[in-house]
Amino acid sequence: MIRQLPLLRATTAGLLSLACALTHAAHSPESSDWPSRPVTLVVPFPPGGGNDAVARQIAGPAGQALGQLLVVENRPGAGGTIGSATVARAHPDGYTLLLCSTSSLVVATALYPSLPYRVEDLAPVVHIADTPTVWVADPGVSATNLQEFIAAAKQAPGKYGYASGGTNTMPHLAGRTISARNGLNMLHVPYRGSTPAYADLATGRVNLMMDSIISALPFIESGRVKGLGVSADQRLPQMPSVPTLAEQGLDDLGFVGWVGICAPRDTPHEITAKVARSVQQALAQPSLRETFARQIAKPVGNGPDAFAQKIQRDTVAWRQIIAASQAGQD
């Protein structure tokens, strides 16, 4: 989210459609026996990224609470839309779930009206965590913060390039936003997920990227990339030398994402309620909360109703962000 961006009023039709995804599911005789076999949690991004890390950390304890294995399956491609579409088309029996995120659900559907799935095709189940972001740069740049990088890029049109985990993903839109607002001429270099981008960031083949702190932290701590600004209220103990965006007067570049679990529309309520409870039980474990704290992910655990409201608000907000960033022009 961009903190200072005013939200448009959500349409009544949009709210009703999202509510239908939650309430339309009828009781199924199989619901009381679910799950009787392992459940697949599809992650629509490559292994090693922030979403994948959250999925693998939650899968073990949530599966224990369910009484069945929760198996993580990566189905990357097209900015998270391939795996998301697969789950949207899956039989609504609870055995195929989606690790949904701001990028793959809200951003993608706002950008691509022709996608084979819409927000309403996936029922919100549980909001796992919020994931603050950080702007990182190749270690060879002279800038020590994002404000200095912007100034340097203004003075050298075409010299710098920014990476993303794919065209029209959150990192790409963040790069478009910083370019559009500051009149920068930077080349966009998309990758198949943010993790592969770090090899080129570390060697200076690309120069800038916004990413989740979960993904970026190991690279910052090892010195392979340089942190320029975090979307946190205060500096973080894990990276004390990295200034906040607020310190630099750049609050409006403080994108914050979220990660949760969604199910195919019409999945019985009894099943989605069981999934939500299993994740909430997992998030109550001190060991998992400590893991999230180390990675600077904020556990949430809100169930279907609150999660649906969050998705609806962000859907409206991201339409504004996309329009302002002139998405699709590079």
Automatic annotation (TrEMBL):
InterPro entries: BUG (IPR005064), Bug_dom1 (IPR042100). CDD domains: PBP2_Bug_TTT. SUPFAM superfamilies: Periplasmic binding protein-like II. Keywords: Signal. The keyword Secreted does not apply. PROSITE patterns: PROKAR_LIPOPROTEIN. The keyword Signal applies. Residues 1-25 form the signal peptide. Belongs to the UPF0065 (bug) family. This is Tripartite tricarboxylate transporter substrate binding protein.
